[in-house]
Amino acid sequence: MKKSNDSANEENSKEEPIHFIKNIIEKDIAENKNDGKVVTRFPPEPNGYLHIGHAKSIFLNFTLAEEYGGTFHLRFDDTNPEKEDTEYVEAIKRDIKWLGCDWGENQFFASDYFEKLYEYAVTLIKKGKAYVCSLNAEQIREYRGSLTEPGKNSPYRDRSVEENLELFQKMRDGEFAEGEHILRAKIDMASPNLNMRDPALYRIRKVHHHRTGDKWCIYPMYDYAHCTSDAIEGITHSICTLEFENHRPLYDWCLDEIGTECHPQQIEFAKLNLTHVIMGKRHMTRMVNDKIVDGWDDPRMPTIAAMRRRGFTARAIRNLCERVGVAKRENTIEMALLDYFVREDLNSIAPRVMGVLKPLKLVITNYPEDKEELLDAPNHPTDESYGTRQVPFSKVLYIEQDDFMENPPKKYFRMTVGREVRLRYGYYVTCTDVVKDDNGEILEVHCTYDPETKGGSSADNRKVKATIHWVSAKHALEAEVRLYEHLFAVENPSKGEIEENLNPNSLTVTSGYLEPSVKDAKAEDKYQFERVGYFCVDKDSSADKLVFNRTITLKDSWAKVKKKK
RNA sequence: AGGGAUAUAGCUCAAUUGGUAGAGCGCCAAGCUUUGGCCUUGGAGGUUUCAGGUUCGAAUCCUGAUAUCCCUGCCA
């Protein structure tokens, strides 16, 4: 366990890491900007499940508000009814709650502001800063110009305020077909920033909205709805990802021209990427629809729901997000770092049990045929509050196939003929011989035990090199065990070739023998199967059939030694 | 007439604002251990993208290159 006797030093090391957004906020507070208040928000579009990249943004916004005595809002950015659904709203809320970020009363929807946004648009029209354009989509694209060439003005750009007002009202009233007109900002068709070339503010969509129903047939665009929603909520720091950097001038333009009292500051940071996964929503949706994975919460997915099901903890995810920091540099985090935080947290909280995944029968020849004992075993190696349990012991056990070798290499110090090893919490046993079938396959291993070593230690203090785990065959529970590896075999799966880069071993379904103490385990219960890994009860588990997910293996330095040879 | 952003260890980030670069993970060792886990200690690993310049002194300031990412939805 980690210990430090230098309290000052420990205090320092516990401080939250500083980063450029905190610097901005601290400067703002020092200058009493926004009356020294901090209001942040997480603004998901309810059109898919949240992934670990979103988690970083959620933690960032939540902890910033928490740390500076501010407020954290959850606002659904539901301005595109074609893609959005309440199913996603519920899933998103569930995930954010699980992460431990409480938005309290501050749950909002951009769709709550549609009326206000409409009024703002009228304001812009009256100021001559917005106009109804009747070009079709293709024409608008042509008029926009290109990256290297300026665009040209729409022929409808100089419509009168009165005409614009009337047309916009009619758009709202449903008098036009989709695509017939849009409302555009009047900015600068020659701007080098394409977002400023008279961007669309409203489009006609005769679609049912999951919250407003059929009340509206015009819907605001992101650039217009996001800044105004932020302003309405009194957001002080509107944090988003790098790809919105080019949108910031438009964010500011809208609020300046509308003249909102509140003008939040948009700040961009680099989103989190992870090796061995694909996080793009489109691609994840495809993997779900094409049954490459078994749903959004397939434990191999990088979604919050999947990680939860897999057995990762919110704390591990949070520690990762804090550790990787906040910066503007594009980055891809090694999965090994996530693994580290998952192991770190699980090591401290997961009760220990014994389970054998690849069973090999071990017969203790000098142990009485019908004898059974209950052996005391601590549930946690360092935290006594976890208590102890009793594990049944008998003449015939299962041990792990990997824990016996007939012809062991150097440095292998588990069981082999003639060697004494310890059965965890049990006895010292010495292997005497091996029983094989006609093909030479090992069927069972025989050994003798030393009755004087009960509990796993000897009076003469003699050393054994190895301790191996076991399960009493007679008492063992059989369970389905799902073993997971990276979904993709390569670090950076190229997005076009999902199938080609899949890891064929990403899921192995097997069975295992577990000690009886896990009989009543419930979904999401987490254990360490000693010496094997961390496991979590799956939601598919039932009293009749236990199902465990392998969250992650233990670090295995023997595997490294073996590999080097 | 293109614009915006970013470059420091394998990965992710620091560097008190001009005083010869540090941390976590990863990697390699050793110690400890009733988990080959945990824990402890040590080590390797840097032309700070490059080239000039200013300065006693540059990751930091100046000039100029280069590389990578983002932007031409009536998506967000």
Overall description:
With 565 residues, the protein is α/β, with parallel strands linked by helices. The chain has four domains: 20-111 and 224-285 and 311-341, HUPs (Rossmann fold, 3-Layer(aba) Sandwich), CATH 3.40.50.620; 114-221, Glutamyl-tRNA Synthetase, domain 3, CATH 3.90.800; 355-469, Ribosomal Protein L25, Chain P; 477-564, Ribosomal Protein L25, Chain P (Beta Barrel), CATH 2.40.240.10. Helix content is 28%, strand content 22%. It has 15 helices and 25 strands. The chain has helices at 7-14, 20-30, 52-67, 86-99, 114-126, 137-144, 161-172, 222-233, 248-258, 281-289, 304-310, 314-324, 335-349, 498-501, 557-564, and strands at 39-42, 71-76, 107-109, 130-133, 182-185, 200-204, 218-220, 237-241, 265-269, 352-353, 355-356, 359-364, 373-378, 388-393, 396-400, 420-423, 428-436, 442-449, 467-468, 470-472, 477-484, 507-514, 526-529, 533-537, 546-553. A seven-stranded mixed β-sheet has the order 10-23-24-25-21-22-11, with helices on one face. A seven-stranded mixed β-sheet has the order 19-16-17-18-12-15-20, with no helix packed on it. Helix 3 crosses helix 12, helix 8 (222-233) packs across helix 9 and helix 12 (314-324) packs across helix 13. The chain is elongated, with a radius of gyration of 31 Å. The two termini are 32 Å apart. The structure holds one RNA strand of 76 nucleotides. A motif ('HIGH' region) lies at residues 44-54. It catalyses: tRNA(Gln) + L-glutamine + ATP = L-glutaminyl-tRNA(Gln) + AMP + diphosphate. This is Glutamine--tRNA ligase. L-glutamine binds at residues 77, 222. It comes from Uabimicrobium amorphum.
